[in-house]
Amino acid sequence: MKFPHIAFATPRRLPKPADLVGRVAVLDIAFAAGKGRQSFTQVTRRFIEGLGDRLAVWIDHHDHIMHKKYADDDRFVLRSKDEHHACPEMVTRERIEKAGPVDTICCHTDFDGLCSAAKWIRRGIEPYPGADLDARMIDTRLGQPSERATTIDRSLRARPNDEMLRGLILRFLANGCDDVDSYRVLKKNAEQLAPREAQARELAKGFVVKNSVAVVRFGRVENPYDKTTLLLIGQQLAPISVVCDQTTVTVATRFDSGINLLKILDLQGGMPTVVSLAAKDFETVVNTLGWNQTSSPAL
Predict the structure, then answer these.
(1) Looking at the structure, do residues 217 and 172 belong to the same domain, yes or no?
(2) Do 177 and 206 fall within a single domain?
(3) 129 in the same domain as 89
(4) Residues 185 and 226 placed together within one structural domain of the fold
């Protein structure tokens, strides 16, 4: 099986187009979002224009007001989170064949993105039966994914900055998940999430709930914590969970809550149920959510 070049990325941290080899497929990378169009212009559009004709296809399932700008460009397969809960199900044989030869895959760094890249390499075939469904459950945090998917997800959360681990996972998925030794390594890495979860539970003791919003704010912590765990604990306390650390304020609600955080916070795109902004925006965020109001706002 021929592997293309791989570039791991996030919406706000995209590689330089000049560093990417040949024709490029972008998978599960949302358009950069924020207030106004500045972040899109400075990050996403610059990346698109830098690739030019070398952009073979861009497949994504996040909401963004700038999707309409590319509606007439058939290289862009852009859908909303409601239409597709995860990206791998959008990576089909028909779309792969239509895109033509690809030298580089630029994909997101989570299970959803790595599974999308593996499915592309496998010409539209799932890495294992049920992988598309697992991606939906992990990306929405609804349902119970398979043991294999849970192990991969926990490995990534335990070592979020480990690019070698991402490469191992991608190869494991692309080769059909038959490598026993690789899976053993992934299970060992997944065990490393436990201390991060424990730290998250400790930080969760600081949640303050008002007006259907659970908020915890803290400065520097000595031990790393798992933000997913902390946000989910907050969602058990209130419909909306807010976590603010030294650098970032993250807001989350259950995927089936019916709450659209993008609309409430007046953001141009991303996930309707999970958004992140700079920590300096904390007061604006919690005020908009009504946390400091004397009466509960209509969410």
Answers:
(1) no
(2) no
(3) yes
(4) no
Q: Residues 6 or more apart from 198 whose CB is under 8 A from it?
A: none
Q: Are 76 and 70 in contact (CB under 8 A)?
A: yes
* Cα 72 to chain centroid, rounded: 26
Residue 294 lies in a domain: no
- The two tokens of residue 249 are 């304020």
**Of 279, 285, 248, nearest in space to 265 by CA:** 285
What are the pLDDT tens digits along the chain (299 aa)? Answer: 778 999 999 998 999 999 999 999 999 999 997 654 458 889 999 999 999 999 999 999 999 999 999 999 999 999 999 999 999 999 999 999 999 999 999 999 999 999 999 999 999 999 999 999 999 999 999 999 999 999 999 999 999 999 999 999 999 999 999 999 999 999 999 999 999 999 999 999 999 999 999 999 999 898 999 999 999 999 999 999 999 999 999 999 999 999 999 999 998 888 899 999 989 999 999 999 999 876 554 45
Parallel/antiparallel/unpaired status of strands 248-253 and 240-244: antiparallel
Residue 297 within a domain? no
Distance of alpha carbon 76 from alpha carbon 241, whole angstroms = 33
Q: Which residue has the tokens 């709930």?
A: 209
| Bridge pairing between strands 5-9 and 104-108 | parallel
Alpha-carbon distance 278 to 215, whole Å? Answer: 16
Q: Distances in Å between the alpha carbon of 185 and those of 29, 80, 195?
A: 27, 35, 18
Q: Which residue has the tokens 């690739």?
A: 51
Is there a single domain that holds both residue 53 and residue 123? yes
**pTM of the model as a whole:** 0.92
Give the residue among 277, 296, 298 at the shortest CA–CA distance from 209: 296
Residue 298 covered by a domain: no
> In 3-state terms, what secondary structure has residue 242?
strand
Query: 222 is written with which tokens?
Result: 């000595």
For residue 288, which amino acid is it?
T
How do beta strands 76-78 and 55-60 pair? Answer: parallel
